[in-house]
């Protein structure tokens, strides 16, 4: 028995090894058979090299060493940016256009078996379609028709990628870069346009300013004219009242022709005081002139003395009941004074007509009359 024990121990060891290998194989087979698919993903399963099924999200069991996963497909929307592509416009300008495509896999089987790489296919289809679309536009239309280009690209791509199990949701032009020379010309054009708008706005501002200034000057001139007119009216009224007061004072003071003649003679040197009056004329008939002045102020006729004692001193020959109404209206009082002065002038002319040999006036020795003696 001591001889057989080593052989039994060796057989048991071999058996244990075989059992261990079988256990490991079973564990590996179970691990490979059980698969958990994440959300928004799909697995394409092939059995012995042929398409078997598409596993969606969840727990799935495969046949070990018979079924295998061909590809994992992401069902979420993807964004891919393509490098700039040179495109020639209808006016023979080369522009560089960057595109961005938003797509989503709707049929994982078609995306795997209908095309080798649908991303490369989308890129090449985008480039060719972009050249066809932009080739029929000039540079100005290309820069201002982004939405139109995006819509045409999306329609062509969605129609072509439908059989690939891919849906193109959006196509965007990220950048449109014209040549450097064209960019300089466009900047100059925009600068000139801005300068033109600035000049127009400046001219409109100057116009409005001048209009407002003219309106202000017009209103100021109108107000100044109204103020001058009112001042002239008030000044005339004041002068009329002053004349009425002087006229009333003369009547109340009972001035006689001698006093009036004396005042008249005192004013003659004032008339002759200026240097330009070398020779001047005076009326020869002082008596008629003084009579007319005295008559204008209420005196008697020629050769008649004004009866000073006939009325009390300080009383006026003008009726006091009429003065308040005359003073109340300066314009009427001034008109009345002018009428009385005209009447006095007519009396003087009538006196000259009675004595035609005397004439209206004569030159007195061609010499200025000496001033009256001082009092």
Automatic annotation (TrEMBL):
Tagged with keyword Transport: no
Region entry Disordered, spans: 297-375
Sequence ranges of Low complexity compositional bias: 322-334
Keywords, in A-Z order: Membrane, Transmembrane, Transmembrane helix
Descriptive protein name: SPFH domain-containing protein
Domain Band: 32-190
Top-level taxon in the UniProt lineage: Bacteria
Subcellular location: Membrane
Membrane-spanning residues: 13-34
Predominant cellular place of this UniProt entry's protein: membrane
Membrane topology per record: Single-pass membrane protein
Compositional bias annotation for Basic and acidic residues: 335-355
PROSITE patterns: BAND_7
Similarity comment text for this entry: Belongs to the band 7/mec-2 family.
């Amino acid at each position: 028995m001591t001889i057989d024990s080593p052989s039994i121990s060796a057989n048991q060891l071999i058996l244990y090894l075989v059992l261990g290998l079988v256990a490991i194989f079973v564990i590996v087979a179970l691990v490979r058979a059980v698969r958990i698919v994440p959300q928004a993903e799909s697995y394409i399963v092939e059995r012995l090299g042929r398409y078997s099924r598409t596993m969606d999200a969840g727990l799935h069991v495969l046949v070990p060493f018979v079924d295998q996963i061909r590809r994992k497909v992401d069902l979420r929307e993807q964004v891919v940016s393509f490098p700039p592509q040179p495109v020639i416009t209808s006016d023979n300008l080369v522009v560089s256009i960057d595109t961005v495509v938003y797509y989503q896999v709707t049929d994982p089987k078609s995306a795997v078996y209908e095309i080798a790489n649908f991303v490369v296919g989308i890129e090449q289809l985008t480039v060719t379609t972009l050249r066809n679309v932009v080739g029929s536009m000039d540079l100005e239309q290309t820069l201002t028709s982004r939405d139109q280009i995006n819509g045409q690209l999306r329609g062509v791509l969605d129609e072509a990628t439908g059989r690939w199990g891919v849906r193109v949701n959006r196509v965007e032009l990220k950048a449109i870069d014209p040549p450097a020379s064209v960019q300089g010309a466009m900047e100059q054009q925009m600068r000139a346009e801005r300068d033109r708008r600035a000049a127009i706005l400046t001219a409109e501002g100057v116009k409005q300013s001048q209009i407002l200034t003219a309106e202000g000057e017009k209103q100021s001139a109108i107000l100044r004219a109204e103020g001058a007119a009112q001042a002239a009216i008030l000044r005339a009224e004041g002068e009329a009242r002053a004349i009425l007061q002087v006229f009333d004072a003369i009547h109340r003071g009972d001035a006689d022709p001698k006093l009036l003649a004396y005042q008249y003679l005192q004013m003659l040197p004032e008339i002759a005081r200026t240097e330009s009056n070398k020779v001047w004329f005076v009326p020869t008939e002082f008596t008629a002139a003084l009579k007319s002045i005295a008559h204008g102020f209420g005196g008697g006729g020629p050769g008649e003395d004004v009866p000073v004692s006939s009325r009390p001193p300080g009383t006026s020959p003008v009726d006091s009941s009429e003065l308040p109404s005359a003073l109340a209206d300066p314009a009427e009082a001034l008109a009345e004074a002018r009428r009385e002065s005209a009447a006095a002038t007519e009396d003087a002319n009538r006196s000259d007509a009675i004595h035609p040999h005397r004439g209206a006036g004569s030159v007195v020795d061609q010499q200025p009359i000496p001033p009256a003696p001082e009092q």
